Amino acid sequence: MRVVVAPDKFAGTLTAVEAAEAIRAGWSRRAPDDELVLRPMSDGGPGFVDVLHEALGGELLAVTVTGPYAAPAPAAVLRVGDTAYVESAQAVGLHLTPPEERDPERATSRGLGELVRAAVEAGARRVVVGLGGSATNDGGAGALAALGATAQGGVLDAGPAALPGITAVDLEPARELLAGVELVAASDVDNPLAGLRGATRTFGPQKGLADERLVEVDSWLDDFGARCDKFVATSKGAGAAGGLGFALLLLGATREAGVAMVADAVGLPQAVRAADLVVTGEGAFDFSSRSGKVPYGVAQVAAEGLRPCVALAGAVLIGAREMRTLGVESAYSLVDLVGEERAFADPAGALADLAERTARTWSR
C-alpha cells in the first residue's frame, strides 16, 4: 500500500514532523513493504514554519523578539524566494510562559510585529503570517506598535489593560513600512474581534483569563476595534490569535485558510491522489476538530481524492457517527492503548505503537 501520513502536532508532546516520523516507524514495523509518504501539517498555529521549511526548503533567518511578557523569545523568518513565512506562536505563543506566570491582561503581541518587520527588512515582498497558539489578547495592538503605529492617550504594547486610555490610533507609519508588501493572514479561525464569538470570550479562558474578567476585557477590545475600524473588527478572522487577525486586516492583509495553504504548499492533494490510504492525527480529536483543524482539512482532501482517512490521536472524544461527519473512517486513541502516563512519558514510542496496531487493520 501507499500511505500518506499527514498529522498535526500533538500539542505539548510532539511536533507535526516528529509525529509523522513516529507513525512511519510504527507502521513500518507491521507493514514493512508499505510506502509511507510523510506530509506533516499545520493550521497556521505552532509548527507552521517548521512544516513549511520541511516541505519547501528555503532559508531560515534567526530573530530574537519580544515575548508576550517582555522576555526575549527566539523566532525565525522562513524565506522562500520573495515570500517570507512567520509564525505568531514562535513570537507570542502560549507555550512560552508557564501557566502560573500568565497574565493575559498585560500580555503584548509586540513580538509578532517585530517578526513581520524583520521579514520586510530582509527584503520579502510577500509575508505570510501563521496565526494560532498565542498567549495574547490585545487586539494585535502590540504588533501594530512594533510596525510603527502610534496611539493618543495611551500605549499600544502593554497588553489589553492599556487599551481603555487610547483615544486614537495612527496606522499610517505601519502602512508605509508595508507599502508594496503583500500581507497574508493564514488562519482558519473566523471569529470577529469582540462579542459572544470574539477573541476574548472564545479563546480568553485557555490563555488564563478568569471567567469574571471576560466581559470587561471584551469591552476593551470592542472599544479598540471601534476606534481603529469597526467594519474590520467585525470581519471574519479578526479574532484570530487574540486579535492579531484584526491588526493584520487593518494593514491590508488578505485572509487565507491555514490548513488549505499548508496542504497546497506540501503537495498533499497530489500525494493523496497517488495513495491508497491517508493517516492524520492530533493531540485531541473531538468535534471542535471541524473548526479549521488539521484532521478535518486532511480528511476533506482525502475525500476529494476518493481515499479513506483514519486518525490517530492522543485522545478520541467523539463517537463513530461524529467522526464520519468529519470525513474520518476511524479514529484510534493513544491513551486508550497505552494509558495517559506512558502517552506523556514516551509520546513518540506510544504513537509508534498505535500506528503499528492501526496498520494491522488497514494495511493489506
Automatic annotation (TrEMBL):
One GO BP: organic acid phosphorylation
One Pfam family per UniProt: Gly_kinase
Keywords: Kinase, Transferase
UniProt-recorded Gene Ontology molecular function terms: glycerate kinase activity
UniProt cross-references to InterPro entries, sorted A to Z: Glyc_kinase_flavodox-like_fold (IPR018193), Glycerate_kinase (IPR004381), Glycerate_kinase_RE-like (IPR018197), Glycerate_kinase_sf (IPR036129)
SUPFAM superfamilies to which the protein is assigned, alphabetical: Glycerate kinase I
Family from the record: Belongs to the glycerate kinase type-1 family.
Protein name as annotated: Glycerate kinase
Organism of provenance: Rhynchospora breviuscula
